[in-house]
Amino acid sequence: MNPQCSASTLLLAALAFSTTLSPLHAQFVQQGPPLVGTGVVGPSLQGQAVALSADGNTAVVGGPWANSYVGAIWIFTRSNGVWSQQGPELVGSGAVGNASQGFGVAISADGNTAIETSGSALWVFTRSNGVWSQQGSELVGSGGGGGPSVALSGDGNTAVVGGPSDNNQTGAVWVFTRSNGVWSQQGPKLVGSGGVGEGLQGRSVAISGDGNTLAETGPWDNNYAGAIWIFTRTNGVWSQQGNKLVGSYASYEGFGAALSGDGNTVITGGGAGAWIFVRSNGVWSQQAQRLNGSDATSSQITAVGLSGDGNTAILGDSADTGVNGNANFGSEGASWIFVRLGSGWYQLGGKMSGSGADAYQEQGTSVGLSADGSTAIVGGDDYFTSNPGASWIYTRLPILYILDSGNHLIWMYDTHGNPLFFESAYASASQPSGLAVDSGGYFWLTDSSLNQVVKEDGGDVVLRFGTTGRAPGQLYQPNGIAIDFRGNVWMADTGNNRIQEFDGNGNFLFQFGGLGGGDGQFNAPVGIAIDPSGNIWVADTGNNRIQKFDGHGRFLLKFGSFGNAGGLFEGPFSIAFDPAGNAWIADPYNQRVEEFSSAGVFVQAFGGGFSFPSPYGIAVDFLGNIWGVDYNSSHIVELNSSGVELLQFGTIGAYSAGQFYHPTYIVAK
Fold first, then answer.
1. DSSP string of 341-388?
2. Is the dihedral of CA 355, 333, 60, 313 positive or negative?
3. How buried is residue 133: exposed, middle or buried, by Cβ count under 10 Å (0-12/13-18/19+)?
4. Which of 92, 134, 306, 411 measures 20 to 30 Å from 124, CA to CA?
5. pLDDT at position 16, please?
6. Per-state percent for the chain, helix, strand, coil, to nearest 5
7. What secondary structure, in 3-state letters, does 53-114 show?
């Protein structure tokens, strides 16, 4: 499979037997009107730079033309989905002349430290009880000073600033650290080796969550091919890691930069798209082809952002004609979302251009993502008009992964019932029975026919393990599968009446259980799930009960028995947890789903009827809505937490969008 395709391209290529596909709905939707800071008259270039806190609830926006080019930044906060400005505009003291503060901005993970930069210095602000104040004086690096780009570590104690005009436009970056509220430069300025000509190093910078990996770009390097340089810190000393990184068909590579929280994934934009590189054992390599929006009208990418886990990317292009096709002295601009599944990157939905803008807003001048990738910010500086510029907030809708067991397919759908992507499981599993999606976007399947577990990437088998038998590490009719926070694999070894744990490489670690009805014993366990506290929950199907264990397999509690009253079961199949930590159980032979507290206390039950006669798989999305797959009717059903049906889609069929044949599991992310 081509590792960089749009979702629509994948569907059109794959669903040769389908008739007409519904247009893809955007997976990110605008939240509220655009953000425009108060206290300024005339053009301010608000949106020239933007950043989000880890939880996505605090945003910082830079406007370098505010106050007749003195510049400023604005802070916005979100409460119950509504954004408002927090305090007045912030202007750093000690600036000389028209400093254009706000050309670059960054914010700590907790949202309590913000930093802004101009062409020559940077200022730090901190928040206490909702009030912002400047921390220390302006910072200017030795041997050159600073420039228009800045990044901040998760704890807010390490800042990196880029100065592309340093040393006759060779460029450089400076690192500052904070100790007991006092900032100081750490080491000399950093200049990447292997540069050719006027590289503009430091045009964009990024830093990992722990502050020990930084990236800096030089879009003019080597006659405008551009490049990225990576530096790492050991015992307070910075050194370059490997050679400069140049992507395939590079052109002006280096407009925007972002690093994942662990520093192992970096993205940058340029004149021919966006490039992603990944690190393994200290060695960097390009991942997938360069990224471009399938519906883009311009090939350049002017800004990039990355989620904390590195699996969601946002691309901005201020020159794109946007949703409304506006282009003249300036453009409407647009942004795109890509997600990583295994080692491949795939576009989600079409381009995004926010409402409430003028025709030449240049949206995509700057972009950012929250740590979990569920909130995005897009800046549009309105360079070609007298308007102040603005920023837009988008929030992500859940994504559904459906195991269509009878058709040997894994589907990805949006929450409107529109297909986004699919992957064949024919090559990997004879009888796919269970599905999990790990933090890297890889699919894990149990194969109850071959008695194996398969890790899949783009339809290719990355890992396969398991043999038929009853010894530790062997399998007999495995079903449910779950991945814990360490990346270890847990599964219900149904035919052996036990639970087994393996590491991410398929090495056996642990087992517990055995046939019986006592505590910690099982009779054909099918479903398994891991709650937010790391406890293991098992659908002990043959015993018509649920059992809960800690992460070491020690029995904690049990509830349920055979029956159709509330709190009883007939063949419980799967388990999912809502945002409050309550457990939801698919009870197929009672044609319902049931809710229990984390202590196993029955809360409610609902379902049944033609639309939900045999719920097998169950999932709860981060909005709190319940999703079930119905094995017999091949329906996918969405319910709210009160049991009201919100959506139903799917019919019995094969290899066409909206058709399934005996779906068994569903995952919501």
1. ETTEEEEEEEEE--SS--TT--EEEEEEE-TTSSEEEEEE--TTSSS-
2. positive
3. exposed
4. 306
5. 32
6. 5, 45, 50
7. CCCCCEEEEEECCHHHHCEEEEEEEEECCEEEECCCCECCCCCCCCCCECCEEEECCCCCEE
- Here the tokens at position 586 are 């698919």
Cross-strand pairs, 116:
105, 123
pLDDT computed for residue 40 by the predictor: 79
- Written as six digits, the tokens of 514 are 């055995």
- Sheet bearing 28-30, strands edge to edge: 28-30, 390-396, 375-380, 363-369
Cβ atoms 231, 243 nearer than 8 A:
no
Helix (H) or strand (E) holding 490: strand 489-493
Region of residue 356 (left: phi > 0; alpha: psi -120 to 50; beta: else) = left
pLDDT at 479: 97
Query: Nearest-CA neighbor of 415 among 624, 662, 631?
Result: 624
pLDDT confidence of residue 326: 62
Tokens 């779950």, residue located? 482
**Cβ neighbours of 474 (radius 10 Å):** 15
pLDDT, residue 26, reads 55
Three-class SS of residue 519?
coil
The predicted structure's pLDDT at residue 384: 67
- Give the pLDDT of residue 328: 55
Q: Tokens representing 410?
A: 């894994």
Q: What is the mean pLDDT of each run of 10 residues along the chain (669 residues)?
A: 36 33 58 92 88 98 92 97 97 85 96 93 96 95 80 98 93 96 96 95 97 98 97 98 96 96 97 96 95 90 96 94 69 92 87 81 94 96 79 94 93 90 75 92 94 89 96 97 96 98 97 98 98 97 98 97 97 96 96 96 84 88 94 93 93 91 94
Q: Which of 249, 131, 262 is nearest to 207 (CA)?
A: 262
Q: What is the C-alpha to C-alpha distance for residues 202 and 204, in angstroms, rounded to an integer?
A: 5
Sequence length of the chain is: 669
